[in-house]
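Suppose you are handed a protein chain with no further information: no name, no annotation, nothing but its sequence. What can you learn? This example shows the usual starting point.
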Amino acid sequence: MSSRLIEIFEDETLVEKIKSRLPHLFQLAELESSRAGNVGMEVGSLRERIVVALLIYKFGDANVETEIPITEPEIDVRLSGKPVSIKTKKGKGFAGVKLIWTVDTQKAREFRETYHPHCDILFIQINWDDTGGFYYIPEEAQKRLFDRVGREGYIKLPKPGTNPRGVEITKEALSGLVEDDMSEVINIFWQKAEVDYDPYKRWVDYWRED
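A reasonable first move is to predict its three-dimensional structure. Written in structure tokens, the prediction is:
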């Protein structure tokens, strides 16, 4: 089944909207998940919701399935029945992107021994005051690279003795995937704006309601 994600990149109006609005929305996500100037881990979930909302806006509620069982840890949403993984990374380069979140060393090893690419990826590289991208990486491109470089070249396990947060795709593998001929990209200049944002306002407004 071919992916409908390619339709995003063929829609010129939507491409311009992504370029102009995604930085603002991700900036709001950072503000909402910040405390004392530090961005918390929950920012990842907020970014994911913003991207899912984009899919719902483009393809409609009926085509976007958001209730994904926790037993499918890599799949974040289904578009017209096809699984999609949403990954975001802040900063330059392609290191540190998780395939799965786990602190269990044994589960990490088991994941590497059984993993095989099985869903499309939307990867967003956030690079404030510089250029990043909104990437579509098809399942087929992932499988081709995985078969070529093998598990060791594709998957990076956490170092023993550290406090890991998950199993990563190697920076070499991700770099190869974003440059694959089948992948698509919307280049985005990540500019922050002056925002007067109060993370408590909407909740206070609810309390004020009669």
